[in-house]
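Lab channel / #folding
Pinned by the channel admin:
"Please post every new chain as: sequence first, then the structure tokens as a reply. Keep commentary short and put observations after the output so the thread stays searchable."

First post following the new format, from NK:
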Amino acid sequence: MVYMQQSWRLKLQLIASVVALLLLVVLVKYINQQGTDIIQLNDRCNLSISNCVLSLSNGVTVTIVASEQTFELEQNNRIALRFGKSSDIDLAPLTMSASLSGMNMDMGTIPLEVNQFDDEFVVNVIPVMCTERNMQWKIDFIVDDTRTQAAQTSVFSATFNTNW
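Reply from TO:
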């Protein structure tokens, strides 16, 4: 009888441990997802066709504007990211990084210089010439917003094409 009680207790402890572990996994996954917007615009935001506007979960809108729809190889091409809301947004607590990569040919990942001005971030892109005549490029933007205690990171992409 004592053996059965100990066996029953061990089974209950094992079940409780498994349930606690599952709850811990769910909690860690939930915490890791909080504060991150991952916006995939690859199919919808081709800067060779038009500028893009997207909305982040915190109510902020981002407009991605290319200086020209025709991106020139080996030349500086300017892309501006303008952040807005129903009222103006202070860009001071925002930081941004960007990188360029080839979509139809592996060109590695090229970090891009980002400059912050009063009401926008500016990324200068110089796509290199390669053996692919019609090249598709992807720019990844990572924006960190530290205005609140729970910092928010937004990750989004845009594409463009080059031809020679």
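NK: Residues 31-43 have pLDDT under 50 and may be disordered.
TO: also worth noting, The chain is about 20% helix and 40% strand.
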